[in-house]
Amino acid sequence: MGIRFFTAKSGLPSCAANGTNLHSSYDPEREAERFAEVISASFYPQYIVVTEPALSYCARFFRKRFPAAVLCAVRYIPDFAEADKLWDIVFDAADGKSKLSDALFDTLGEEGLCSAIFASWQPSARAFPEKDAAVWREIKCAVDKGRDVLFTRSCFASRWIANAFFMCRHIERARRIVKGASPVVVAASGPSLKSALPSLARFRTSYFLVAASSALSALTERGIVPDVCIATDGGFYAKAHLSPLTRFPHTALALAEEASCSGAVLSTCAVIPLSYGDGIAASLFAACGIPAMKIERNGTVSGSALSFARSITDGPVFLCGLDMAPTSGFQHALPNSLEKDAAQFYMKTFSQETKNSASRFASGSLELYRKWFQSLPKARVKNVYRLAHDYRFSNTLGAIADVDVNFFEKSLSPRRTLPYIADETLPKKEAVQKAALDFAKLHAGSDAWLHEIFPAEYVSWRRELDATKRKSKAKTLAEKNDALSKKIARIFE
Does the predicted TM-score (pTM) go above 0.90? Predict the structure, then answer.
């Protein structure tokens, strides 16, 4: 497939491919100007994304019309590299090796995708119909993901920051991990966990055990007490998983800043505060003098737990119960606090088939999380394994090898130093609470606060062109912020 270049009647370069002119044979500049003029915009766009603009005459006119927007091109073929300098960002879809949807999401982010204009240069669409269809499928995938993420943030961000203030209100004791060299086992709650339990019980003193909150009951009811329970879920019902901790005072709770936890657990347990290192919650912890271990934001506790485990040992890390596959019926190794407590009500209310169908709704999220593990480079998961005994997984985790209990046993050595939990300095409770309240008074309602806590409303307000609608959206934003401020104040009453 070659590009045929020629000179248009206006004297400017033009070209054609597959029997289709990619630019006018008369006046390519005027054609591009009309294209930029007819693109409708009912909001202030943050990005302009044009699919295969060829010689890119339109870039100048888009920059003139939308001076504040970032201009992006998606290339179908590599023949127009000279024109790439006219764009701020160029996405390469020519080789098909890298996934365009991921590149768009990683570069533009969920807010950028929801504040972008996507424009198709139609001559290229006609010249490369198969490539064009594939690219627009990728764009749709990226936009859908962006909307989903923005919706999730909008639904939960206010709850997450309230959880962080709640931790500031109730935390009594802080701990930290002193790094070791022994194996660390991360226990997730997938059904395969059951197969590893006998070996975990037998060799319990030879490794350091980190349990996801949803796996806590399955472990403790078999006499396997974790060194650390890790929780990152900010949902209301997530705290049910942590209730057994009040019976195990020697198990520390590694708790993410946005995670949901009861006051009873926070007041009883030694807490290892975790922070993603960015955003308002991280600033809140810093203002309150709460020392926090940094972890990776992943969307699933298993990903964050892996980051945590790798940071506390130079030895191997074994992942148990990390099935990453939908199942019929119960999603977790049993017993499980949340499912155990809800089972009686659930089975009385819904049929078994309904329950089995509902359990499969998680498959989309599971696929997303599985792909994250599969995408981890080999160097990053060196010495990381997925452990089970006589269990046939329905998937692989990329560079993370599946191993059996024999491999696990051979990794154990009494000469390897276990990580251990040490005291961490924490200001007096009253000082932490005062600092948290002062922080709320200082920052609640600021631009950064509104942007992070109410992202969908904030984006909608900022991109609104109509003055009346913009005023109404500002009022809605202020009302939501006022309600959150009152909620935070009640936490400290």
Answer: no
